[in-house]
Amino acid sequence: MNHQLTFKDDKSDKFWNIEVSGNSFTVTYGKTGTSGTSQTKTFETEETCIKEAQKLLSEKLKKGYIEGNIQTSSPKEKTSVQTPNDFHKEWEKIVNSKDLQNDLTKHFSYLADSSGFEPVIRKIFEHTNVVKINGNTLIVEFKNGNTLTAESPGNPSSYKKFPKSFLKLIEKHSTLKTNRLELGKCYFDFDIFDEGDRVYEIFDGKESNVLCPLKFMDNSDWIYHPTEKNKEGEPAIFPIIHELEDEINPVYYNIGSLFLKQLCDEFEIKIEIPVDERPVDPSADLKTNWWSNLSDAWKQAFRNQFENKDKEPTFETILTLERLNLNDSTISDLKPLEALLAEKKFKLEIIRLANTSVSDIAVLAMAKKKLFSVDISGTSVKDVSALKEINFLIANRCTELDFSTVAKLKKLRQLSLQDTKLNDLEFLHDFTELEQLNINGTPLTDEQILKFQIRFQKDRLEKNKTVSYGRDPLKLDIHPEIKDPLLRALADNRDYKPELALETGEKLLAQRAERKDIKQILKDLISICDQQWRKYLYIKTQKVKKIRVL
Question: Where in the numbering of this chain does the WGR domain appear (predicted)?
Answer without folding.
Answer: 1-79
